[in-house]
Specification:
The protein is mostly helical. Helix content is 86%, strand content 0%. The chain is built from 2 helices and no strands.
Length: 59
């Protein structure tokens, strides 16, 4: 069951990271040069925190 949680959260985090990056670009008023690297950084931070929480709560 834990694998299902990880998969669902990963899908959700993908869209959340895209939303955050899109908002940051709109605020800046331009597309970022290293967009994929920034996206990876956002996704990595969200994933580490979320997956740690899943591991803690599911045992």
């Amino acid at each position: 069951m834990e694998a299902v949680y990880f998969t669902l959260v990963a899908i959700l985090l993908y869209f959340v990271a895209d939303f955050i990056l899109d908002r940051a670009e709109r605020i800046a008023g331009r597309r970022f040069d290293n967009r994929s690297l920034i996206f990876f950084g956002i996704l990595l931070v969200l994933a580490v925190g979320s997956f740690s929480a899943i591991r803690t709560y599911t045992g």
